[in-house]
Amino acid sequence: MVSKLNLDTMTHLRPNTLQWIRKGNVVEVFKQTLAHFSISEYRDEVLCDVLPMDACHLLLGRHWQHDKDVIHHGESNTYSFKIKAKKMTFTPLAPN
């Protein structure tokens, strides 16, 4: 995704390794990129670790959830938070 979108990368300040992304392989994380994204009318940017994956995903992880004070509603699998006093709720896509 980083290559296809021609995103600039920077050296990771704290390089690390992951073992859960690809079974049996250790993945080295030594680059990051600032990704701008939008979901409906919500627009944001997030600093992402860059690593090889077999699928293309932008993972809004614990840092983003903490910074936005996100609440996960387990039964409905939705994520709610407020931006400038406006409530936002992310819902999963309906199955095709």
What tags apply to this protein structure?
96 residues, mainly beta, 2 domains, three-stranded antiparallel sheet, 47% strand
Specify the helix fraction band: under 10%
Classification by helices and strands: mainly beta
Mind summarizing the main beta sheet?
3 strands, antiparallel
**Cα distance, first to last residue?**
24 Å
User: How many H/I helices?
Assistant: 1
Report the strand count. Answer: 6
**Rg from alpha-carbon coordinates:** 15 Å
Inertia-based shape: globular
What is the percentage of strand-forming residues? over 45%
Please give the domain count. 2
Low confidence ranges: none
> What spatial order of strands do you see in the largest sheet?
1-2-3
Whole-number mean pLDDT = 87
Order of helices and strands: EEEHEEE
What's the arrangement of secondary structure elements?
Blueprint: E1 10-18, E2 27-39, E3 42-50, H1 62-67, E4 71-73, E5 78-83, E6 86-90
Antiparallel strand pairs: 1-2, 2-3, 4-5, 5-6
Q: Could you describe the 3D structure shown?
A:
The chain is mainly beta and 96 residues long. The protein has two domains: 1-58, no CATH class; 60-96, no CATH class. The protein is globular. It has a three-stranded antiparallel beta sheet with strand order 1-2-3, with no helix packed on it. Strands 4-5-6 form a three-stranded antiparallel beta sheet, with no helix packed on it. It contains one helix and six strands. The longest helix has 6 residues, at 62-67. The two termini are 24 Å apart.
